Each structure stands twice: as C-alpha cells, then as structure tokens.
Amino acid sequence: MSNKVIKEPSNQLEYIISSKQEHEYSKAVNKLFDLALTYIEDAEKGNRLGRKAAWTQGVFEAPLFYACDTVPISAIDLGRLSSRNSVQIAEEAFDLPKETCSMISVLLGEWVLRNNSSVKRVVAFNNACEPFNMAYELIREQGYDVFRVEGAIRPKLNHDGRLDQVIKFLSGELGDLAVWLTGKQLDESRMAREIARMNRILAKVRTVMELRLKNSLYIKSLPTMFILMGSGHYFGKPDEFEAVLDELIDELNSSDVIPSPLGKVIPLTWIGARGLEFGVYKAVDDCGGALLSWFTPNPYDRNWREDVPPLESMARYILDYFLVGSPVHQIKGIERMIEQSSSKGIFFYHYVGCAFGGVHVEIFRDYFKKRGIPSIGLDGCFQVGAPSGQLLTRVRAFIEMFS
C-alpha cells in the first residue's frame, strides 16, 4: 500500500485520479477507470468515423443497441464529467426555473454545448420521469433527432391479461426502436446472443460483489459504482469491460485481505441514484464504511430471460426495473441485499429537485425504519465539484453511530 499524501480532491476528475492512486495495487481497477474516462470521447470519435451511436439512459439498452451495431452513450455518464457552467447554459438557453432538477439542467447544458460536435441521436424512454420528457422535447428543438419509446407502468397483478398486453405493446415499441437505429428489422438471433452476454456479465458483477464481502476494502466505493454503471453499457467496449471483470475476480481471489486502518469495516447499503458527488463515497471509505450492497438504477441482482423472444425479454426486464412503477415491488430485493451483506445501515440518495426519486426514498425509509434498520437520506446535487461540508458532516456522523 502507498504512503503518499493525496490532497483533497475538488472535482470529479480529481476524485477519480485520487482513487486510481489509492488502488495502485490493482491493475483491474485502474483499467476500469480508464474505460470510464475515455467512454464518451471514444464513442463520439467513433461516431464521427462512421460507427453508429445514440444517447440513451445506459441502464438496460445494451443488448438491443449492440445487436444493432450501435454504441449506447449514457446521458447520465455525460453529467459526471460535465462543465461547471452546464446549469447556467441550460437556464439561459431554455429559461429554466431555478428549482429544476439539477440532473436535467446539467444534461440540457451539456447537450447545448455539444450541439455542433457530438452525436445528435437520442433515445427517450418515456417512463423515466416528466422532467426528462420535457428535456427531450427541448433538445429536439435544438436539432437533435429524438426517438421516443412509449412505456407503461407494470400492473401489480395480471388481471384480465393486462400485463401481457403491456409486454406486447412495449415489445413492439422496442422493435420500432431497432428499425430507427438501423433502418431494418431487428436480427433477433443477434440480440439473443447479446442477452446471453449481458447475463454473463451480470453474473461476473455479482461474483465481484460477493468477493467484496470477504475483502471489502480491496475495491472501494467509487470504483464499485463504476462497475455498476459499466454493467449497463460496457463503456462502449464490451470485450474490454468483461476482461476487466475477469481480472477483478482473479485479483480478489488471490489477494490478501486489506485491513481497515480504523480496526473494523462497517457494512452499509446504498439505495437510490448512483450519485455524482464522489466525495460522499470517499467520506464513507475514510470513516471505515463499506458500501457492500447497492440498489440503484443498474440492477445486478437479476438476469434477463433467455426462454422468451429477445424483445419480450427486454420488455419484461424494463417492467421489473427499479424506476418503473411503485417501489413497494422492490422491497424484497432490498431486504435480500441487506441480509446478504449484513448491512448495519442504509444511505438513501436522490437529487435535489427530483420529486420522483424523493417519493421513492420516503417509501423505502418508512418501511425500513419500522424494521429498526438505521438510515439517512442524502439530498445530492448533479453539478460537478466537491460535496458540501454539511453533506459530508452528515455522512460521517451517520457512520460514527456504528463505531
């Protein structure tokens, strides 16, 4: 382990560089960060050279996109290394109210900045949230080609075959998306192979997460978040991302356990948005915490079905997705994660101005409070820079409760 002194980071890039230095013993973690740092730039460059690409959520689209020879560029990843003036640009360009969700403001500002230099195709899944739907229409006015996938909320039960109808409708929408991406009907055998690859990668992500239970500090919080992000889009390089996972598994199986400098590791769970304020993750690590289970928009605890047609498999996966429908459908999965990781407490994270995420968090918090599991709600911001001192103080105080 290195004894070099690292100054406190002040922006997202510096947090990544700091984490690379902290993980200098792991070639795999450093390769992971390199994939993350080059992801969007390489996708944009490839598009200029003729390779198809489109902006999207970067969560569940990989099998369809790669089956269509199209790189999915995660709009959420765009915000992680955004410009400091993105929000100001968006507010001036679109006359946004100050209370607009910071994630929407940042992404709109970034798309304005890239209007003449980047990929101009955008896939919009309409069941995300209304502010996102508004953003898609605003960038359409800026000259972006937006394809809307009309979604639906999963019915609680399959009364009168309603779930079957929703699945059929969404499958049709996804088939239309494939035509928009390529100009021809989907090659279903190709997509079936991509679904098999997705399941293989998700299995490897689960293996990494299981091995972290035994060696919690080998891969700390920030690179773990990037592993989960990458599971949704592979950073545009499927083979390289899977190779990184294989290398991480080999390292975790062969490396000595890294002891906590504070004497013990406090297992914790993260629920909600993946977070842009990387300083929160660093504060968790520095206080002796370890985020060992994550319930975020990148679910790694489930597979895609391979016994049904590919578009139906994707439709079913989307309808079971974290952000679609009532969060009460997800509670059993969270309980299972908490039990497997022996978590002592929960972080609930959502962005300021996101009423959609805030409602979900409150439902979750109320449920787990009644079961005696300590938790803390964090109102984060999607703008670049270090987190506020108040936010870090709350994180540290919460972890110190378990010391």
UniProtKB/TrEMBL annotation:
Gene3D superfamilies: 1.20.1270.370, 3.40.50.11890, 3.40.50.11900. Its cofactor is [4Fe-4S] cluster. GO terms for molecular function: hydro-lyase activity; iron-sulfur cluster binding. It comes from the Bacteria. Pfam families: HGD-D. The keyword Hydrolase does not apply. Keywords: Iron, Iron-sulfur, Metal-binding. Belongs to the FldB/FldC dehydratase alpha/beta subunit family. This is 2-hydroxyglutaryl-CoA dehydratase, D-component.
